[in-house]
Design brief:
It is built from 2 helices and 4 strands. By secondary structure, it is α+β, with helices and mostly antiparallel strands. The strands form 2 sheets. Strands 1-2 form a two-stranded antiparallel ribbon. Strands 3-4 form a two-stranded antiparallel ribbon. The longest helix has 14 residues.
Length: 156
């Protein structure tokens, strides 16, 4: 295979310091039960590499009016997927080999202040091997003191 792009060579295999909390531990009836908030899931160099990747991706054509531009990335060689599996496994106390991560990634860019997605439930995706996704992984690549919140919906 061809060598990785030069900008990607900055990715560190060092484990970042992670702490995880389960915001719904006392709510087994909540649809988000079993999820985790993982702080410091990536090193500064990993975030820098992902930001550079994001900046190189073209924005997808908008199919409908949206508050965010979307860019898509397919992790053909698995470098992002393996990292996410390692971080998720650490948070759940599992072996990384037991965590499967879909290779399809979507970057959302909220260019205008106050942009947001409407309330929704993430649906599973069926992967090429027929398996289904079970969790959504969100990573904030930039900090914004006036935004960046995620609200967990209540079951109705």
């Amino acid at each position: 295979p061809p060598p990785p792009p030069a900008w990607r060579s900055r990715v560190s295999d060092a484990a970042p310091p992670t702490t995880s909390t389960d915001p719904l531990a006392a709510r087994p009836d909540h649809p988000g039960f079993g999820g985790a908030i993982i702080e410091h899931a990536a090193t500064a160099s990993e975030v820098a590499v992902l930001l550079e990747l994001f900046r190189r991706l073209p924005a997808a054509r908008k199919e409908k009016e949206a508050c965010a531009d979307r860019s898509y990335f397919y992790d053909a060689d698995g470098w992002v997927s393996r990292r996410i599996a390692t971080v998720a496994a650490r948070a759940w106390g599992a072996a990384a080999a037991n965590v499967a991560v879909a290779p399809h990634f979507r970057f959302l860019n909220y260019a205008k202040r106050g942009g947001r997605l409407p309330a929704h439930v993430d649906l599973h995706r069926v992967l090429d091997d027929g398996s289904r996704t079970t969790h959504t992984f969100l990573m904030y690549l930039t900090a914004d003191a006036a935004g960046g919140a995620t609200a967990l919906l209540e079951a109705r």
